[in-house]
Write a structure and sequence with these properties.
The complex is a heterodimer of chains A (about 350) and B (about 160).
Chain A: E1 2-5, E2 16-22, E3 25-32, H1 40-44, H2 52-57, H3 64-79, H4 85-113, H5 118-139, H6 161-184, H7 187-193, H8 201-207, H9 212-215, H10 223-226, H11 247-271, E4 288-296, E5 299-307, E6 315-319, H12 321-325, H13 328-332, E7 336-337, H14 341-348, H15 352-356
Antiparallel strand pairs in A: 1-2, 2-3, 3-7, 4-5, 5-6
Helix pairs in contact in A: 3-4, 4-5, 4-11, 4-14, 5-6, 6-11, 11-14
Chain B: H1 7-19, E1 24-29, E2 34-39, H2 44-53, E3 59-68, E4 73-81, E5 92-100, E6 105-107, H3 117-127, E7 130-132
Parallel strand pairs in B: 2-5, 6-7
Antiparallel strand pairs in B: 1-2, 3-4, 4-5
Classes of the chains: A alpha+beta (about 350), B alpha/beta (about 160).
């Protein structure tokens, strides 16, 4: 029998999963995506380099800094603009705050709600809002920041920001202990997620998945390490990996990544250099093609930007984590119970709008 | 940015050129982590298999089409990378080929890189590129009732969005 899950919001956005089921088992699955396709790449050709920034953040508003930063890196490379050190540090702080917020969103919805754990849903969303408030203090917006135009961030850290962020990190570190107690070490969560949706290391490499999904299968690959951008080459942090490759391993990767983000922000605040935050960048994109990449919350995010000496890009190509991890979905969701599907889907942290663009 | 010598990238280019003297038409090394190889599309699967097995580039990060109506071309770019070979894990190797705009056909890379599956479907839909041998070449992102030409081609214009 064929069952259609969605497209009315089966979880994190509009997507339809066509499942062929035999009794309680899913035989195969065909992801039918595109319900939130907006032609971002086409629209980008009509907008100027700078007015593209608010536009290109929209595919994943909960991860806006990374979508913005990845787009700006190739433009800066074509223009030959170098962001001053203080600007790099501020961008890094904003990006890591965004990673925590994105992982908290995942924890609340894709892990909490999908496994029927209402407490972690409330906890995750509540704590995420504290980070949102600080981001609003820094950038002026709660979610869609447009904080990094070519040349460097728009604003310096406001007064009191460092103090409040440090206080928040102290608080959040205590909360993570609580999260561990009620969710990650919870026997019910372990029973539901452990051994479910196993993606072996070789398969993860073969399918080309990325981000926490890849690291949950034991591949230590993180753009912040292999091609450091921002201030990452000067900061110490680990890349958490787990060998098991199941949904629980992907849960744990994101949990550990939040701890590493705290570590990165603390160091960046401490080492924050003095000086200008940004340089003036030209408004045109010079002729040529450049590739930039960042480690977004959903994995490696690669942008190709082609310019033709006008103020509009002639081509923008977005290669994001959600679209790359999609290939793992039909592979993982087969010969499993219907009840396990949400746990596998949640473990992938698939964001339909980002994949559809 | 340059933490290692650019010679590693040049080594990779030379290996490819020696192995495929006729098929590799051009190369560009843009910094230590960016390589662009232009190749003849008829030998694509041989080159792809060698890039995977010989050089260690085990996955496709994405496939980009670029429409160039003035040259009557559609360029297809395969962005490949490596997870399993640490020496080249920081390199993005771009394989670029030029297809005839009137009839863009190329062999599908899914047999070499299963990670290319959805990227090829997207490029088929957006640029009309036919990937021969793809197991499931269907529309992916556009609406079911969209029966116009591939929307990313440059001659498909949307004047209500402004000048281009």
């Amino acid at each position: 029998m064929d069952v259609s899950v969605g497209p009315q919001h089966p979880g994190s956005g509009h997507v339809r999963l066509l499942m062929r089921v035999d009794g309680d088992y899913i035989v195969s699955i065909d992801p039918d995506i595109g319900y939130v396709h907006r032609g971002c790449e086409k629209i980008a050709e009509y907008r100027t380099a700078v007015s593209n920034i608010p536009h290109l953040e929209r595919p994943c508003i909960i991860d806006a800094i990374h979508l913005n930063w990845g787009y700006v890196l190739p433009i800066e490379e074509l223009q030959g603009v170098v962001v001053p050190p203080r600007g790099q540090y501020i961008s890094t702080i904003a990006a890591e705050m965004n990673r925590i917020m994105s992982h908290l969103y995942w924890l609340a919805i894709n892990a909490g709600v999908f496994s029927g754990h209402t407490t972690i849903f409330m906890y995750g969303f509540g704590d995420r809002d504290l980070f949102i408030e600080l981001m609003e203090m820094l950038t002026g917006a709660r979610l869609t920041y447009s904080f990094l135009p070519p040349g460097g961030p728009r604003r310096d850290l406001p007064a009191e920001f460092q103090k409040r962020l440090t206080q928040l990190l102290d608080y959040f570190e205590r909360r993570l202990v609580e999260y561990d107690r009620i969710f990650f070490s919870n026997p019910l969560v372990i029973a539901r997620a452990k051994g479910i949706g196993v993606l072996k290391r070789e398969e993860a490499i073969r399918l080309g998945v990325t981000g926490p999904v890849l690291r949950g299968s034991g591949v230590k690959y993180d753009v912040r390490k292999v091609e450091p951008y921002g201030a990452y080459s000067e900061l110490e942090f680990d890349v958490p990996t787990f060998e098991e490759g199941d949904s629980y391993a992907r849960f744990m990767v994101r949990f550990e990544e939040m701890k590493q983000s705290i570590r990165i922000i603390r160091q960046a605040l401490e080492k924050l250099p003095k000086g200008p935050i940004a340089r003036k960048a030209p408004l045109i994109i010079p002729e040529g093609e450049a590739i930039g990449r960042v480690e977004s919350s959903r994995g490696e995010l690669v942008y190709l930007v082609a310019g033709d000496n006008s103020d509009k890009p002639s081509r923008v190509k977005i290669m994001n984590g959600s679209f790359r991890n999609l290939v793992a979905m039909p592979y993982l969701v087969r010969n499993v119970h219907i009840a396990d599907m949400p746990i596998i889907y949640g473990g992938l942290d698939y964001w339909p709008v980002e994949a559809d663009r | 940015m340059a933490s290692q010598s650019p010679s590693k990238a040049e080594d990779l280019v030379n290996t490819l050129k020696t192995r495929f003297p006729d098929a590799v038409k051009g190369s560009k090394v843009e910094g230590p982590r960016r390589i662009l190889i232009t190749f003849d599309k008829n030998t694509f699967l041989d080159i792809a298999a060698f890039v995977r097995d010989g050089l260690g580039f085990d996955h496709v990060k994405g496939i980009a089409g670029i429409d160039e109506p003035t040259h009557k071309l559609i360029k297809v770019l395969y962005f490949t990378g490596s997870f399993s070979k640490t020496e080249v894990e920081d390199v993005i190797l771009v394989l670029e080929t030029e297809l005839d705009r009137g009839n863009p056909v190329i062999a599908s890379a899914v047999s070499v890189w299963p990670s290319a599956h959805f990227h090829e479907r997207e490029t088929f839909e957006m640029f009309g590129v036919k990937f021969e041998g793809h197991p499931d070449l269907r529309k992916l992102l556009t609406l079911d009732n969209w029966d116009g030409p591939p929307p990313m081609l440059k001659d498909i214009k949307f004047p209500e969005m402004g000048q281009r």
